[in-house]
Give the backbone structure.
Amino acid sequence: MFVSKSMTKKVITINKDADIFEAKEKMAEHRIRHLPVVTRDYHLIGIVSDRDIRSAMPSKALSDYNSKKMRAKIAKLKIKDIMTIDPVSISPLHTIQDALVIIQKIRVGAFPVVDEKGKLRGIISVRDLLRAFINVIGIEDPGILMCIVVEEKLGQMKKIVDAITEERISFGSIMVARCWDEGKRAVFPYLLTQNITSLKRKFQKMGYEVLDPMKWYIDQMPKND
Amino acid sequence: MKKTGFLFDERYLLHDTGSYHPEVPARLQAVYQGIKEAGLLSELTLIHARLSDLKWIEAVHDKEYIKRFEMACLTGNSTFDCPDNQICPATYETALLAVGGILDATRLVMNAEIDNAFCAVRPPGHHAEINKAMGFCYFNNVAIAARYLQKEWGIKRAGIVDFDVHHGNGTQHIFEDDPTVFYYSIHQHPSFAYPGTGREFEEGEGAGLGFTKNSPVLPGKGDKEYKRLIKRDLFPAFESFKPEVIIVSTGFDSHVDDDMSDIKLSTEAFSWIIKSLVEMADKYSNKRLISILEGGYSLKRLPELAKNHVEILLNHK
């Protein structure tokens, strides 16, 4: 569950005195969008993103945007002029849940991972987090997702798991959407089977609502719109 | 009237999946009864099963997988590779008989002794991967038929249409990078159904890019959506591909009365589907079409569905 396990360790970095063409080339070559800016001994001092690069480039609306004169002007810009100083970073000992919470709040696509001495240890992006969670949800194993709406009472989960176990069905994963209707939760077991007909009937007999897939709505958290 | 072959063998009933499994021998009996009681048996060329030569199974599956499967049945295990795949000692042989019968039906079609065929077999095949059994399937019957057509009959363009309500992951993966086999599947959307594959953006790999097409259908949809998607996705694909033979993975589990899915097709919709496929076979494939049973679990509806299916293959007016 630690950032240290999900992060990319081989980070492509750049020096503060490099010019922006160098940054542009590095990003294109390695197909990345963030370059941590580090000192010679790998201390993190800033970060430059492809957005920063694009902001620094002249608009294509200008007739001379790509002229020799213009390019010479741009070449004078250094990374230190356009980078974000002291960026938001995360520790290798933070958990990936911590990373998720931060990424939700601060709209960035990736964080440099920095140890207690301020040295760059890696970088973790939204992609890395997605990969970790895809593994947990088990999307890639063949199975069926169900949705059962239960009351927010103690012991509901055990009843659901017992019912599934009695049918001798294997679990892929279980997700619980806590933000549901008043006093209710939606439980999403991912079951490694093709056959859930008798399980569905069992849940209905137990008084649970087996929700029509077209009514599933996992994303009921308030959006930052 | 067309000359239609009908593959059925009592030995297919010997694959015993236990008491709590939907893939039961009674399904096949329901299919057979439906065809028999409609008085169709005398019009059909009856084909019986025989054991397939292992070389055709090996054309698709790993040798090690085949041996593992045989051993699991011999040792008396109750499941193989996953809990859904219940087996009994007769399962391995039944699976070989299914393939053998299908290859015979295919040979008769290619020799023009019959125009098309319906193969009522168990166990089904389209979920079986090269080295993994899953979803009640052991040997990928349809994939083996396609490889047989390629190797024995030199077929350069085989079209596979899979309208079982579950995506045929095995068949798709086996031919993913093969541009000489076009795999089309229409099935319940993978986010809501087993096996979780068959998204719209799966269109083949490498040389096979463009020779796989998937039409995922949201739960609750029925006839209208199926017709719309088949017209939009399958018809133009086959118009361009012009298959020399059409192999069909025939599943009846998208019927509104079948509990295995949330799709609500009517009995008439199945007739529309197979009629469209027969028309395409007439147009591109010199009438050659081999329909192979996959899923379909409503014992109540199977007799009528099977009867309608065969009547259309026979080209009854």
